[in-house]
Every structure is written in structure tokens, then in C-alpha cells.
Give the backbone structure.
Amino acid sequence: MIDPEPAGASEAGGRREEIVEIASRLFAERSYRGVGMRAIASAVGVQPASIYHHFSSKADILDAIIADVTERFIAAHLYLLDPKFVTASSMRQLVTEHVVYFWQHRIAEAVGLRELKELSVARAEHVRRSRRSYQDAWICAIQVGVSGGWLPAQNPRVAALALLSMINGVNAWYREDGPLSIAEVAEMHAEMAVTGLLGRPSKRHVDSPRRG
Amino acid sequence: MIDPEPAGASEAGGRREEIVEIASRLFAERSYRGVGMRAIASAVGVQPASIYHHFSSKADILDAIIADVTERFIAAHLYLLDPKFVTASSMRQLVTEHVVYFWQHRIAEAVGLRELKELSVARAEHVRRSRRSYQDAWICAIQVGVSGGWLPAQNPRVAALALLSMINGVNAWYREDGPLSIAEVAEMHAEMAVTGLLGRPSKRHVDSPRRG
DNA sequence: TACGCTAACGAACGATCGTTAGGCACTGTC
DNA sequence: GACAGTGCCTAACGATCGTTCGTTAGCGTA
């Protein structure tokens, strides 16, 4: 209640968004179970009971955090993998936008990744289904590329999952105070993914040192 | 070393190992904070108080789980990245063994990744330092390859971290009942990593669709 | 027989958990 | 000026948390 905002108003809408934002930061730092309602309340500057005027339960806050951060990106970008139109260029573009988007939403993404099991079963399943459709779209798109002869990937499924691991992993190590902007890192990953990871003829067993 | 027992005796060595094994499974499934001492005790078939004869605290169990699963692998394999002797072959071998080892120890690895912050500060720092040395060894090795002309990676640091994300991500999607053995997946990743991801001349911006 | 050790027990400790009940101050509407 | 709604409060609920207590049964050794 610092500023009921006649004009300017740094926080739009109010408490609910504030709680979501603060709780997501706390959950990302100390995990969902590691943060109590009292901790959230005191970080917001409010009594624990007051939170229940905005959310019906603690899990409801988690719902609001995870809600559609991931799904929104997927829904908005699946078209780039459409089997009928997918190209190396559209793949590169998707990788780039994926990396940038996931970094921009890194807090919610981290919570969504780590605390998926704490979500209500229905919503967790919904998120999982959404991710699965994204995965499948990648696999299918790579398969198209292989069939079309312009992607020499050896195993489309393994390649897709490796690619997704690679670009989802950026958030785990990237730091903004380093020498590279996230956009640069994103473009490097697009290059590594499409030209390198997927775009290499699979001359197998040339000199690979078989393990005993 | 599975069974030093003279006869019968279904459990080798004893309770301590049994508790570690059961607790790590529970922690991996429901998280460290999501599993109480009572749940561990009842899974072991013992009263909660009895666990304190084997461990001084709950965090002590976590210590025993994470202990040196990761570090043992790193310490045993760093030689493969020795700047003086590293080759594409040794890199391929390391990727393969990394994937297989991490899958075989997937439960402890999952707990170690997810619950690192729950560890005592000293031990957490030790684990982090160990991982960091592995990372740095990869970066350095790739740099050697680039200088030597046999690895055309664009940015050694980014490439190394992308590579590690890729191979660390396998555990998140691989399932044993699929069509591929973990060894096959491991070798595919070795191929993708060394031949594809790292081994591609960096013709940049050929036709990449710059984002607005 | 007496001692010490290990491994386990049932019961309880204080703290913290998510949540709820009931009330107070303010706001805009009729 | 009465009324409903909103936002927040204090206080407390029952449950569960990690942990500690005192005790005991069994075993090997002096």
C-alpha cells in the first residue's frame, strides 16, 4: 500500500501479481517446500492470512507462477516446426527465440521445472502434455529434414532431445555479467544446433575407441 | 561386494547402506524436504529414532547420498581431458562414459543436482568446485583442439557448456524400456558432440534470419 | 556375574507448517 | 446514512516436522 497510484504507478494491478512475483523468486531460491506462507507474507510485507484473500492455497500460488509461462511460448512457436514449411532457417530462428525467451522467464521456468510434481495432478499433466507436443514437433521436424536430405541427423528422436537439453541448459550456467549477451549465446546455440549437432553426416565408428 | 554375508542374511553390511539407498530413492521421488524422517524410517521398517544411531541428522543422510558420486567420476576421468594428450577419440570416450555413468547413478545424481542447496555449505561448495574443475577441463581441452586446428568450435566455453548440458540432460528423458540401450544413446551423443557440435566450421550468418 | 556396546524401541519435545475464524478500517453505491 | 465489498489484521487451529529422551534386549568379553 505504498502508493495507491493516481498516476505513474510502478506496480499495475496490485497485490496478486506482487505475490506471484515474490513467491516465484523465493521458490526458485529455496524450493517450494522450503518457503512457508509466513516467509512469503513477510517478503510481501503482509500477514500470512492476508495472502488467502488473493489465493485459495499455497499450491494456487504455484499454479499462478507456472500457469502458462512455458505453454505460451510453445503455443506461439509451434508453427515454426510445421512439417510442411520447416527449414534450417526456421529451426535456427526457433532455437534463438527459445533460448532468449527461457532466459527472460528464467525464474518461472526454474520453478516450473523443479516443482512440477508439487502442482495439482491435472495441471502438472497439462504442462507435461504441452512440453511433449513441443518435443514431438521437434522430432517430426528433424525427421522431415532427414527425409528431405537437408538434415543428416542420425537419430531424429535422440537428436531432438539432445538439442532440447542443450538449449534448456543455458539458464543453468549463463550469467548476465559475462562477456556475452543472451542474444549472442542464443545465436551461437542456433548455429551449433542446426549446423553442427543436426547437420553432420553420420560416418560412424571411424576410429571411435570401443569401450571394454 | 554385494554380499559379504556367510549365509542367508538378506542385507549386506547393514542398515546404514540400506537407509542411504532407500532415502535417496525417496528424495529423488518427492524431494528432500518432501520426505520426513518418519517416512524414511517406515520405508526402512524401523522407528524414526533408530535412524539417529546411524546418522547424526537428516542432512547427514543427504551428505552420504551425494558424497562423492559425482566427484568420483570426475576424479577418475579428468586425465582424458589432459591438454597434453587430449584427442577427438579421448573426448568421444569421455562423453560415452559420462552418459553411461550418470545413468547408472541417476538416483544419486538427481538428488545431488536438485538438493545441492540443502547440503551443508562446506560440502555443497566442495561439490560445486569439483564440477567446476570438470567444466574448466572441458573448456581447456576444446581450446587445445581449436588451437591445434582439429576442432573448429566457435566459442570453446559456450561449446563446452552446451555439450555438458546435452549429456547431463540424458537422464531427464532416457527410459530403459525404449528401443535403445543406454550404451547406444551414449555413443550417439559422443558422435553428436565431437563430430557435430564441436566439429563444424563456423560459417556464420549464411542465411540466418536475423530477428527484429 | 558384571560390564559395555550396538541397535532398536515408545513417547515426547518445541518449532513450524498450511490454514481458518472473526473482526476492524476503508471505499464506493444506493 | 445504511450496506456490501475489499484488504488486511490478530489469534489460533490441528498436523507434521526434526530431534531427543530414557529404556531395553541381545551379544561378546573379562
User: Anything to note?
Assistant: The first helix of chain B runs from residue 15 to 30. Residues 67-197 of chain B form a domain with the Tetracycline Repressor; domain 2 fold (CATH 1.10.357.10). Residues 15, 46-47, 49-50, 53-54 of chain B lie near DNA strand C (CB under 10 Å from a C1').
